[in-house]
Specification:
The protein is an alpha/beta fold. It has 7 helices and 9 strands, in the order E-H-E-E-E-H-E-H-E-H-E-H-H-E-E-H. 30% of the residues lie in helices and 18% in strands.
Length: 224
């Protein structure tokens, strides 16, 4: 899979893809993430990519021309399954969406900044708009990193144990059950005996019951 991310601040994305699972995915050649500097596609002086909004008001808006230049330049070499704009008023990202996007081949993400991007880009180029929550960030870079990580770990071969992702929270609209590791006893706090029984059928049943209970207590909305 290839994910191309257009941003005004590429430095914000240097860290998230250089470590841990995302780095291993890149080293294996399973996931390629390209961070594209929008300023490389402007024709304005001093690498300008934003301007004041028509009609007045506070803040700046990313201009259409640099964005369209970048999009069309990338499209000349890559066919994208989706061109995603990261924005607070998009559809809320969730595990189901992560599963869907992980099946795609090529994605482009556009990071909003300042007050957003010229609406004409949204009208004519964007195929999907996504938000990671009901709050506002300084830009879409952190959202792009979150979504890329959530998608990337689902691609076959990225995780050492592919079944691990299938037991994550939200995969079955349930939260994950409690987990334990060695030692069996720590400060007189014991691991539940069922997990030491070796009876995998009973362990699976216990985990399912714990998932239901935890979801009822913490996220009852998921059970609806």
């Amino acid at each position: 899979m290839q994910i191309d991310i257009i941003t005004v601040v590429p430095g914000l994305l240097e860290g998230p893809f250089s470590h841990s699972i995302m780095k291993r995915a890149a080293d294996k050649g399973i996931l390629k993430v390209n961070v594209i500097n929008l300023r490389d596609y402007t024709t304005y002086a001093r690498a300008q990519v934003d301007d004041y909004p028509f009609g007045g008001g506070a803040g700046m808006v990313l201009m259409a021309e640099p964005l369209v230049n970048a999009i069309e330049s990338l499209q000349a070499n890559t066919t994208y399954d989706d061109i995603i704009y990261l924005t607070p008023d998009g559809e809320t990202f969730n595990q189901k969406m992560a599963n869907q996007l992980s099946l795609q081949n090529n994605l482009m993400m556009i990071c909003g900044h300042y007050k957003g991007i010229d609406q004409r880009v949204r009208d004519h180029f964007i195929t999907r708009e996504i938000s990671i929550g009901d709050y506002v960030l300084s830009g879409g870079e952190l959202a792009a990193a979150v979504i890329t990580d959530a998608i990337g770990r689902l691609i076959p071969g990225v995780l050492n144990d592919e079944s691990s992702a299938l037991t994550d929270s939200f995969q079955d609209d349930l939260l994950a059950p409690p987990v334990y590791t060695r030692p069996e006893v720590f400060r007189n706090w014991r691991v539940p005996e069922i997990l030491l029984s070796g009876n995998h059928k009973l362990i699976d049943e216990w985990r399912y019951e714990q998932s239901i209970q935890r979801t009822k207590e913490r996220r009852p909305d998921l059970l609806k």
